[in-house]
Automatic annotation (TrEMBL), chain A:
Location(s) in or outside the cell: Cell membrane
Provenance organism: Sulfurospirillum cavolei
Main location: membrane
One of the protein's GO biological processes: L-alanine transport
One GO cellular component term noted in the UniProt record for this chain: plasma membrane
Membrane topology: Multi-pass membrane protein
Domain of life the protein comes from: Bacteria
UniProtKB keywords: Amino-acid transport, Cell inner membrane, Cell membrane, Membrane, Transmembrane, Transmembrane helix, Transport
Family statement: Belongs to the binding-protein-dependent transport system permease family. LivHM subfamily.
Keyword flag DNA repair: no
Residue intervals passing through the bilayer: 12-33, 45-73, 93-114, 134-159, 187-208, 228-258, 267-287
GO molecular function, one term: L-phenylalanine transmembrane transporter activity
Record-linked Pfam families: BPD_transp_2
Name the UniProt record assigns to this protein: Branched-chain amino acid ABC transporter permease
TrEMBL record, chain B:
Name recorded for this polypeptide: Branched-chain amino acid ABC transporter substrate-binding protein
Signal sequence residues: 1-20
Keyword field: Amino-acid transport, Signal, Transport
UniProt domain Leucine-binding protein: residue ranges: 22-345
Annotated CDD domains: PBP1_ABC_LivK_ligand_binding-like (cd06347)
Family affiliation: Belongs to the leucine-binding protein family.
InterPro entries: BCAA_transport (IPR051010), Leu-bd (IPR028081), Leu_Ile_Val-bd (IPR000709), Peripla_BP_I (IPR028082)
Lineage: Bacteria, Pseudomonadati, Campylobacterota, Epsilonproteobacteria, Campylobacterales
Entries under SUPFAM superfamilies matching the protein: Periplasmic binding protein-like I (SSF53822)
Record GO biological process: amino acid transport
TrEMBL record, chain C:
Annotated source species: Sulfurospirillum cavolei
Pfam families: BPD_transp_2
Taxonomic lineage from the root: Bacteria, Pseudomonadati, Campylobacterota, Epsilonproteobacteria, Campylobacterales
Compartments (UniProt record): Cell membrane
PANTHER family found in the cross-reference section: HIGH-AFFINITY BRANCHED-CHAIN AMINO ACID TRANSPORT PROTEIN BRAE, HIGH-AFFINITY BRANCHED-CHAIN AMINO ACID TRANSPORT SYSTEM PERMEASE
CDD domains: TM_PBP1_LivM_like
Coiled coil recorded as keyword: no
UniProt keyword terms in alphabetical order: Cell membrane, Membrane, Transmembrane, Transmembrane helix
UniProt KW Ion transport keyword: no
Membrane-topology descriptor: Multi-pass membrane protein
Protein name: Branched-chain amino acid ABC transporter permease
InterPro entries: ABC_transp_permease, LivM-like
Transmembrane segments: 7-28, 34-52, 100-121, 133-151, 171-189, 256-281, 301-321
GO CC aspect terms: plasma membrane
Length: 294, 372, 343
């Protein structure tokens, strides 16, 4: 039973982690909480659904469609809605982000209807593996493995490539990066693209594990992912993953071992958030942006 | 000259009195917002019934005034007030959920305007109110139907109930089932609480498996039930599963896939076995217009809400007399509706049959009728 | 001389509103009165929301949470014990819940008070740290309040909500409290606290350097917001006569956000103008949800299109007309001509 729940926890935690990485990267370079990020995850799920159910593409092609589509959407939202506000007061940017989030949710609601649609999961992923008394669906096992691989790739990009260095430099100071001859706007767009692609992968995992898509599915997941990013340390990719895992595990453990508290499981992400802000505001693995500015 | 003007005046008077009037009937429904799909389906029934029967016995035309509540309570209140004070409606059909309908009734009752709710099943809706009516059955009836069917027909003795804390429908139906099942000699071995919006029920199904009941009762809506069914199948939990009308739609079967084969649920009627003549005609006309053979229960109930309103108006000498209309609604007995035979009582509740369906080969198949 | 003129303008406006309420109650039909009540309540919410968002520049998403608290406190205090006994259908209520009873004024004050207490509790972790966490924390807070309301049926009757709340709210109450709220907020904005808040908005670093206690300024704004939002929630409960957890969702906050952005972040008059426009405009925009005719081509009904348009309007304003209608100006500034710039 315990091992079973551990695997469930890993699975759920990894999905939160994938989305949290996108939040943390965008916040790192722009100090923007991109409220629309959770909805990008929803778009990824819908594009996957569209690819498999409507266009009848093979599964991997649909996944590719979802990733590319979401990345483009993320980059477009930066270009259209956020870039013009680079020098505006922060609050304008946040309000616009909420506007984009609301727009995505309602646009999909109008065009696809609010009724959840069934997602045809490829049968290989629906297989159940059984060993040692554990029943594990393949879909639940794949998530942590792929997440670890993606995390490795992201970390490699951030620390071993020139683009990655530019991104880390941006997190320090946007103006200096421009002075150094790097086009900060282009790097920011790439960050949006990467973050959105990861959110799309999270979205696909989500619909594979819980085979239905509806326009509001990204809302709560997105919020928890942001809470995870803060808990783990905002601005730190490793922190985002850590935060995601912590929140995922807590949710699973709460329902498994304290079923009476089941209704409150969504509250835990925010309780952790408040606790971290009280005791260690920079998060578990976080760096203090304010201090590092001077 | 005088004679001519008198003749002209009286001609005009005659003409205007034989000029059929337009009488307004209000419709408050969630046409947008989270429950849009259900609201639109229900409204489809209301409008279609209206197209089949737009006039009253005395030649007056019924005009439907539809206001979208967006599924929101404040809007429901505004809509109801507007219909009563601006549009001067004789009666109101709506809303969708029991919570919003309660809001509509709270306002309409004070103004003595009869309300007919098509699908709001919560027991308490009509209590203490004089102008509240409904054409669907109540949660206590539905709970008893399932409980008795399980205990007596299927001889199942123990059950686990999963309740959705966030939905009034679920709370009401679960309570009714528990009371009826215990009364029928059954035992509820466990009650598990969830919240709508959840997708991950692995812990829930593990607990059910550990409790090992004879069957599971899931009085919730299809998004959650379909996920539970799937995840139950994943861990090899293969017990009979039952739900109320919250899953009585094709989306449930689509979402559940293989996992809901053999799933049983209660519904208001079965379009494959039309219970009345009117039902047969409605289904035929509906298929002719929309090309869809299947008539969803919400469509049928919406139609019946309209038909009952018109029927009551026809029985009144003055169809604009809202008090009379309300009394006639409550006096209705043996009304042949699209969804079945409906009899109303003093409290505004309806006595009608329920059907039990089972999912076979990805289709909902009729299994049994339970009469009150 | 100009100070007196400002006072005259404001005073005449207040008297105008009071006179209007008196006439409205006698002459307008029920529906219009209901809409006016809604406008009054949302005015209270908007001007107080503007205090933290617009005047202090701290992006917060708190209204649905505090309004929920206010609504529930008032409802619990106003519903009679018999009505409670009969309504609580999920589990039996706690005995203290049954004994809760107070008159309308006390209920409203307590609603505001509880909301303020919770705001204080939230202020400590959030405002100590400079950063943008207020938005996410308040958003989460709203969620948690809703979760508590659903999962604590012994107190709140769960998702069934509370019904049979006596209908105390009429134009005198809502309009009167709206006037009080507006006057209070304007007085705060024009006082030294208000200047501190604006300093925090314009340049927090400079404010700290000048010796402004930014934590106090932010907390004061937040708590005042919370107080009036609690009172507004209580008025809403007494207007609707029944409340349930699903009323207080994110869209509630989003509506207020559009209102203050449209009116002009930082302007109390703007908040009032925004409320009238949005509340009136939503009714007008219903046509978007129905089939529309464009040059002979009829589009099918697209319910929900209204929401899409709302969000696009918000983005549009942020991109092209960030100041909203009033910018940072108040009513008195409209009469001033271009000599003085409003700050």
């Amino acid at each position: 039973m315990f091992m079973q729940q551990m695997i469930n926890g890993f699975s759920l935690g990894s999905m939160y982690a994938l989305i949290a990485i996108g939040y943390t990267m965008v916040y790192g370079v722009l100090r923007l909480i991109n409220f629309a990020h959770g909805d990008i995850m929803m778009v990824g799920g819908f594009l996957g659904f569209f690819g498999v159910a409507v266009l009848e593409l093979p599964f991997l092609a649909a996944v590719l469609l979802a990733i590319v589509g979401s990345a483009l959407l993320g980059m477009a939202s930066d270009r259209i809605a956020y870039r013009p506000l680079r020098s505006a007061p922060k609050i304008s940017l946040l309000i616009t982000a909420i506007g984009v989030s609301f727009f995505l949710e309602n646009a999909f609601n109008v065009f696809f209807g609010g009724v959840p649609r069934a997602f045809p999961v490829p049968s290989v992923l629906e297989d159940i593996l059984e060993f040692g008394g554990l029943t594990i669906p393949v879909s639940a096992l794949i998530v942590p493995i792929l997440t670890a691989m993606l995390l490795a790739i992201i970390l490699w990009v951030l620390f071993k490539t020139k683009y990655g260095m530019a991104i880390r430099a941006l997190a320090f100071d946007v103006d200096t990066v421009n002075l150094m001859g790097i086009d900060a706007n282009r790097i920011i767009t790439i960050v949006f693209g990467m973050g959105s692609a990861l959110a799309a992968v999270g979205g696909i995992f989500w619909v594979v594990n819980y085979p239905s898509v509806d326009p509001m599915m990204g809302v709560l997941v997105g919020l928890k992912a942001f809470a995870a990013a803060v808990v783990g340390g905002i601005g730190s990719v490793g922190g985002a993953v850590l935060g995601g895992l912590i929140i995922g595990f807590t949710e699973v453990v709460v329902i498994a071992f304290f079923p009476e508290l089941g209704g409150y499981k969504d509250a835990f992400a925010f309780i952790f958030l408040i606790l971290i802000l009280l005791f260690k505001p920079t998060g578990i693995l976080g760096i203090d942006f304010e201090k590092s500015r001077f | 000259m005088r004679k001519l003007s008198v003749l002209a005046a009286s001609a005009l008077l005659l003409a205007s009195s034989s000029f059929a009037k337009e009488i307004n009937v209000g419709v408050v429904m969630s046409m947008s917002g989270p429950l849009a799909a259900y609201g639109q389906t229900c409204n489809e029934g209301i409008e279609f019934a209206h197209s089949l029967q737009p006039k009253l016995k005395n030649g007056d035309t019924v005009k439907l005034v539809l206001i979208d509540t967006k599924g929101d309570k404040v809007e429901s209140a505004n809509a109801t007030t507007r219909l009563i004070s601006s549009d001067k409606v004789v009666g109101i059909i709506g809303e969708l959920t029991s919570t919003n309908t309660a809001q509509v009734i709270a306002i309409a009752d004070k103004k003595e305007i009869p309300v007919i709710a098509p699908v709001a099943t919560n027991d308490k809706l009509t209590e203490g109110k004089k102008f509240a009516n409904r054409v669907c059955f109540t949660d206590s009836f539905q709970g008893a139907v399932v409980a008795n069917y399980a205990a007596k027909d299927l001889k199942l003795k123990t059950a686990v109930v999963v309740v959705d804390q966030a939905q009034v429908y679920s709370l009401g139906l679960a309570k009714a089932f528990k009371d009826a099942f215990s009364a029928a000699g059954g035992k509820i071995v466990k009650e598990i609480k969830v919240s709508s919006g959840d997708k991950d029920f692995k812990a829930v199904v593990s607990q059910i498996k550990a409790a090992n009941p004879d069957f599971m009762f899931l009085p919730m809506y299809h998004p959650e039930v379909s996920m539970i069914a799937r995840q139950a199948k994943q861990i090899g939990l293969n017990k009979p599963m039952f739900s109320g009308d919250g899953v009585a739609n094709q989306t449930f079967i689509d979402l559940g896939g293989d996992a809901v084969e053999g799933y049983m649920f209660t519904d208001f009627f079965d379009y494959g076995a039309p219970p009345t003549e009117r039902s047969k005609e409605f289904i035929k006309a509906y298929a002719a217009k929309t090309g869809k053979q299947e008539v969803n229960s919400f469509v049928a109930l919406g139609a019946d809400a309209y038909n009952l309103m018109v029927d009551a108006m026809n029985r009144c000498a003055n169809p604009e007399d809202n008090i009379c209309v309300n009394n006639e609604i409550k006096k209705t007995k043996g009304f042949e509706g699209v969804s079945g035979v409906i009899s109303m009582d003093e409290l505004g509740n309806s006595t009608r049959s329920a059907v039990i369906k089972v999912v076979q080969n990805a289709k909902a198949v009729y299994k049994a009728t339970v009469n009150p | 001389m100009t100070v007196k003129k400002d006072q005259w303008i404001n005073l005449s406006f207040v008297f105008g509103v009071i006179g209007f309420i008196g006439i409205a109650n006698s002459f307008f039909d029920e529906y219009t009165i209901r809409i006016l009540n809604n406008i009054a309540i949302f005015t209270i919410l908007a001007v107080s929301y503007n205090l933290i968002n617009g005047v202090t520049g701290q992006f917060s998403l708190e209204p649905n949470g505090f309004v929920a608290i206010g609504a529930y406190v008032t409802a619990l205090l106003l519903v009679s014990p018999e009505a409670k006994q009969y309504q609580y259908a999920i589990v039996d209520p706690y005995p203290f819940v049954l004994s809760l009873h107070a008159n309308f004024v006390v209920a409203l004050v307590l609603s505001g008070f509880f909301a303020t207490c919770l705001a204080l509790v939230l202020s400590f972790p959030v405002f100590r740290v400079r950063g943008d966490y207020l938005a996410i924390v308040t958003l989460g807070f709203g969620f948690i309040i809703k979760i508590f309301a659903i999962n604590y049926p012994e107190v709140t009757n769960g998702s069934l909500g509370l019904n049979d709340i006596p209908e105390f709210s009429n134009l005198y109450w809502t309009g009167g409290i709206a006037i009080i709220a507006v006057i209070t907020v304007l007085n705060i904005v024009n006082s030294k606290f208000g200047r501190a808040m604006k300093a925090v908005r314009d340049d927090e670093d400079a404010a700290i350097a000048m010796g402004v206690n930014t934590f106090k300024a932010k907390t004061f704004a937040f708590c005042t917001s919370a107080f009036f939002e609690g009172v507004g929630g209580g008025l809403l409960a007494a207007l609707l006569t029944s409340i349930s957890p699903d009323l207080f969702d994110f869209f509630f906050t989003f509506q207020l956000l559009i209102i203050i952005v449209l009116g002009g972040l930082g302007s109390t008059t703007g908040a009032i103008v925004g409320t009238i426009l949005v509340m009136g405009g939503s009714e007008w925009m219903r046509f978007l949800d129905e089939p529309m005719k464009f040059f002979g081509y009829t589009t099918p009904a697209m319910p929900g299109l209204r929401m899409v348009v709302f969000s696009l309007i918000l983005i549009f304003i942020m991109l092209f007309a960030r100041e909203g209608i009033m910018g940072k100006k108040e009513l008195k500034d409209l009469f001033k001509g271009r000599k003085r710039s409003a700050k």
